[in-house]
Amino acid sequence: MDMPDIPDTVLLEERAALAMNAVAGLPDEDMGGIPYFSADLLARPAVLRHGDWDWGSSHGRLLDACLLARHMTGKDTWRDVERGFRSRLTGFFGADGLSYRLARPEVGWPANANLIDQRAVLLSLTTWFVSDGDPEARRLVDRHVAALKRIAIKERDVWFYPASEYTRDGWPSPNAIALHLAPDPASFSGRLIMPLLRYHQATGNEDALELCGWFARLIVHKSGVFNEDGSFNPARAYRSGHFHTRLGTLEGLARYAAHTGDHELTAFVRRAYDWALGQATAFGWTPGDLADQRYEHESCSLVDLIGTGTTLAGSGHTAYWGVVERFLRNHLVESQLLDLSWVESAPDASGDEPGWTTHVRVGERVLGAFAGYGAPNDYVCDVELGRGHTADVQACCVGSGVRGLFWGWNSIVTAGDRVTRVNLLLTRATRQVTVLSHLPHEGRVDLDVHEDLPELRMRVPAWAGYARVRVSRETGGFEGGQAGAWAPDGYLSIPAPRKGERVTVTFPVPETTSTEVAAGREYQVRWRGDDVIGISPEGTARPMYSGRKVHPTAPRRDYELARPAKEWTW
């Protein structure tokens, strides 16, 4: 069968497939498949390193990526990789139901159940159950949730974890309990809300929902992690306002607010989210924190912004779809490593330190990875300020990057009983409609309808206006200035499209410029619609955005879009 001819524009499912090269490339055969955590690509030769995040954190993130990529692409190509992560991850569980890091006494790492790890573990096991309905996943999560509830310190008006590590002998610091200390509740508790809630929604587990309620109360009313105006508390005790953990907490709170109908909590999330957007660039670069990490961007933080944005937009605050689309089109896909011309690998393993580092095929192994610490205009963050150059790839960002692609892909089309909505103008096939985007080359979106629909709506970007929007269809077109062209939610309304019909929407795409400030430095940014087509100054190690080209009409390619027989969402 011939492959369909489609516009050669960004495909989120294809990017997920490319990222799986890095997911599959990180496991270290000398360590029984335990993945390397980080890569320094500026080193000569480049180097992959193990770290103390190798266990539940990395396995959870990377297993989650395997499952999401399988759903997005419809491919079983990486089943063996997926099985490896699943097998090792389940082996980290202790008899108490928590996931433990293995001891490395030679560097002083004791075995412990790190609270940050538990979120990644719970995330992947929940995805495993939602994806496959595997009773083994449910058994593990039920025990895990019960353990998370059991070890929480329970006061009359707050539950909390008093330290970052729980041991097989209990909490390592009884004094922390006595003093009511809760170090960085966003890191240890807040980020658990999102997977806990999704697991409750999938299974009805009441302990998971109860933990969500107590953790939401801790974050909003007791912790001081967020200031009254929504800004992040920069105190060192709160990891200096660490963006990834704060934004991941907001993602969970946004979902919990939607689930419980708590409009006050939604308003809290929006204040903090809007404040965070003010610290980021319009194309998606975020500071790592409010102190020494503010010069370096984690892809994990951008994924949290995307996830929170889709949740808020899906709850009716539809202006955030434009934010999500800018982030997807720009810094998420631009932060993916697709060019190895600047990376030098070693010809043999003579310089390796088995069990700790390797220099062999480093670039080839991490091709497709998302930036671990990046600059606004460069895959690499190599500045004299803050912490300077640290890591260019991190396993957490590899896994998170795929989740960010999934957040977007899963949100392009949302279907209800009466209305099917196209929220993001990116190419994707669903049971109801296939979206073929010609952006940024042309202001054109083709909608191929696969079922008779009562109504199809499409979000038109604010910069496109409405007067020059045109809709072409077999039953007669209409213009954006025409009465009845728009629905009450601000979407373009296409009434009663029929199976087999193609609806084409066209609109102008303006080119504009903006000045973006990141970590105190100004960048001049050229835009075409929602796409960045150039940044000045350019990067140096692996520049971002400088290779983007725009054509009068969108180039074409042969590509078979995945269309899942069964959709599942987060």
From TrEMBL:
GO terms (BP aspect): carbohydrate metabolic process
InterPro entries: 6-hairpin_glycosidase_sf
Domain of life: Bacteria
SUPFAM superfamilies named in the record: Six-hairpin glycosidases
Designated name of the protein: Uncharacterized protein
Organism: Nonomuraea zeae
